[in-house]
Amino acid sequence: MDNLNYGIIGNCRSAALISDTGSLDWCCLPQFDSTSVFAKLLDEKKGGSFEIKVKYNYEIHQQYFKNTAILVTRYSDGENTFEVHDFMPRYYKLNGKYNAPPEIVRYVKYVSGAPRFSVKYDPKLEYAQGQTTNHVKANFIVSLTNKQKFDTLFMYTSFNKNSVVSGDEIVLKEDGYFLICYNEKILKPSTEKMSLELERTKIYWLDWVDRTPTYKQFNDEIMRSAITLKMLTYDKTGAVLAAATTSLPETIGEVRNWDYRFCWIRDASMVIKVVSELGHKNSAKRYLQFIIDLMPDKDEKLQIMYGINKEKTLTEKTLEHLDGYKGSKPVRTGNAAYKQKQNDIYGILMDVIYEQLAKFSNDLENGEELWSITKGIVWIVSKHWREPDKGIWEFRGEDRHFTFSKVLCWVALDRAIKVARMFGKHRKIEKWTALEQEIKEDIHAHAWNDEVNAFVQSYGSNHLDASVLLMESYGFIHAKDPKFVSTVRAIEEDLSNDGLLYRYKNEDDFGLPSSSFTICTFWFINSLFKIGEEEKALAHFERLLSYSNHLGLFSEDIDFKTKRLLGNFPQAYSHLALIECAINFSRKKREEKILESIS
Q: 217-232+447-599 has which CATH code?
């Protein structure tokens, strides 16, 4: 498999990746950032998988059941046909709470003939660090490891358990199931119960999508991205993950491999802004509560990222025994970037707080806490905005005065002033407005470079950076301002490679990147759209959509030459930017239709 041809299933507690042939190659239980139980994705020999195997003459087709997170893989040789419906259960219980157990259901649906298949059931617990053994018991198969740490996994099935473990051929005559559980079941499962779990989960997702607006253009792409973002939210705390995986390389064979199963304040805040625009205010409310719970003492700085259960220490370790995706070592868990200083996070968080207060002001119980956080953010920004930092791209070298960080410091003040206005705090407005103007003037004086006729990556630099394109969407500069227009043109000239964008072209800690950071191309498309080059933007957008995998999913990066997906997957950043672009095009279409009907 040369591309990331995987589907994601999940239930806002954990997630799993299933290949286009129906092989379950990645899953961590009981939650997103737990140790893996299947990790073939990160080591084809040692990682462990749960594969559905059919003869060569079977054609395999995969798609999502429309508007759900249920993945359907169909196997057919023309006469003999069956489907595997993969999902993680999620639905309302009678008490109004969600049922989202750490389980995967592989519901095998009989369609026609006498289809034959076998399975390779090969879990490898605890990142495959020790030996995992399978034991057939009366009601289940239990997989066990106790070398590094004691751990177990249970599998219930309607098929013969010994045949499953030994990989014998199974002739399908009726529906059946495989149920993989982190915990032993109290009540014995059955095919009927699994069918009910499937229907309940289907209804949950259909209801969720029904609460999302429909769009004139790119509606299917928006919905698939929205469902993917929902699957990357962790219900228990409101955290939003950057991606469901660790250590998928930005470039094959290189070392830019990071663990993304954490909550970056920047990524998560951007996701929540988009998700609330789609009408899902509960996700926004839970995320704001996550922030309130995290917000330390009033003078303590916010970290750039946290664990999904609000952990503050995310020690980075290397799993030396795993070969990595396509041999790309190292495989890492944890992420040392949590120690970095990135001044932009305050503006991004302040933007979300303002948006939620503006949208749901009558429905937020925590206004006083949010006002406290607002004041704390302004205090921190006022003390630190002049300092250099690591920037949005987490350069591991020396700190610099990154333009994006400075712009987001301005955003923090701009949104704080708007919040103060909402709460009638007039004395703060006067004080904060002076600081807002000071930051704005500083950016115009030091981030603009006459030589390249653009806003540059950092003060005093000649290098361009795609993140500067966000100046307009955050309201720092108007789309038609000549300075912004010329910045977009300069970035196109310098950073575009066959329609895909570099983040930047100056060498970083690991040399020059050879893949495009997917979100940067979406930012560029949005910028083209905003400066009036709408047809060109649309052509770029449609071409970029064609680089998704077979299910419309995007990873973090795209290879410039081959267009294969690279980096962690699926990437929340990529999908939120896809939604923003698609909504812009759809709104434009709607405005054109309204004008046509008026004329």
A: 1.50.10.10
What per-residue confidence (pLDDT) applies to 1?
Answer: 43
Spatial distance between the Cα atoms of 325 and 136, rounded to a whole number of angstroms: 31
Kindly tell me the burial class for residue 366, based on how many C-beta atoms sit within 10 Å of its own C-beta (0-12, 13-18, 19 or more): middle
Mean pLDDT of 240-262: 94
Farthest CA pair distance, the chain: 77
The yes/no answer on whether domain 6-210 falls in CATH 3.30.70.1170 is no
Q: How far apart are alpha carbons 523 and 574 in whole angstroms? A: 10
Token representation of residue 149: 């740490």
Which of 69, 225, 220 lies closest to 572 in space, CA to CA?
A: 225
Distances from the Cα of 494 to the Cα of 55, 395, 462, 570, angstroms: 50, 20, 11, 28
For 248-267, letters b (16+ CB in 10 Å) and e give: bbbbbebbbbbbbbbbbbbb
Is residue 179 within 8 Å of residue 157, measured between CB atoms?
yes
The pTM score is: 0.95
Query: Distances in Å between the alpha carbon of 341 and those of 385, 414, 573, 594?
Result: 11, 21, 20, 47
CA dihedral 100, 102, 103, 104 (to 10 degrees): 90
Q: How far apart are CA 61 and CA 81, in angstroms?
A: 11
Residue 187 and residue 50: Cα distance in Å, rounded?
A: 24
pLDDT digits (tens, 9 = 90+) for 144-193: 998 778 999 999 999 999 999 999 999 999 999 999 999 999 999 999 99
Give 467-479 pLDDT, tens digit per residue.
999 999 999 999 9
CA 471 to chain centre: 23
Per-residue pLDDT band for 506 (boundaries 50, 70, 90) equals confident
> Cis (ω within 30 of 0) for the bond into 330?
yes
Q: Write down the number of H helices and E strands in the chain.
A: 15, 30
Q: Is 289 helix (H, G, I), strand (E, B) or coil?
A: helix
**Dist. CA 11–CA 230, nearest whole Å:** 9
Does residue 395 register a pLDDT over 80? no
532, two tokens: 């009036």
Q: Which residues contact 339 (CB under 8 A, 6 or more apart)?
A: none
518-530 and 482-495 helices cross at what angle (nearest 10)?
A: 140
Identity of the residue numbered 190:
S
Lowest mean pLDDT of 51-60, 133-142, 234-243, 350-359, name the range.
350-359
Element holding 253 (H helix, E strand):
none
